[in-house]
Queue: 2 jobs
Job 1
Amino acid sequence: MEANKVLDAKGLACPMPIVKTKKAMNELENGQVLEIHATDKGAKNDLTAWAKSGGHELVKHEEEDNVLKFWIKKG
């Protein structure tokens, strides 16, 4: 999955991954994709809910070596 911007939120606890995601998303144009790397297990539910409530699309997510990776398309 090709991302327009990558956000490193590893080692951050809730709510910081969401705060940083929101800030990074504001820098993107509609239709662009933000890739987020997080280690907070709560990030999966948080980012899924945040994307939906903000009109964005969670395109994909996966876990690799205890790092959660998300791709969110700006709506």
Note: The chain has two helices and four strands.
Job 2
Amino acid sequence: MIKKVISTVVIAAALTFGFSAKGLNAEAASYNTKAISVAKSNLGVPYRWGGTSPSGFDCSGLVKYSYGKAGVALPRTAADMFHKGTRSKTLQAGDLVFFAQSKAAKPSHVGIYLGSGKFINASSSKGVSITTLSNPYWKPLYVGAKHI
């Protein structure tokens, strides 16, 4: 009888944990997808230093706005965003990708990874646009990614 009770408790715990883990993964996929969708809906918006709205974005303003619309609060600057989330060695859509003027410097630019080597960002030269991590300008400045 005790073995039945223990096995029932163990199975119930496993099922509960399994369902909640699936729920968390689905929730993360949902807000990442939503943030990407919001960012893409702002393609072509001009760059504006300090900009945090569809009238003009800087890089961290775009990321903060996009994730905010998806229900996730992020800090205002790329350097502060770099302290959030967990390091991502295998990039997934929705990860934040960071860039700095040198490997020792704080990140000064951030974008949202889209998959297939592409990310969306607000750059001073092109406004909100999609580019690649292999872009000759961005590649040497890449310092890492965070999964939010």
Note: Residues 2-40 form the longest helix (39 residues).
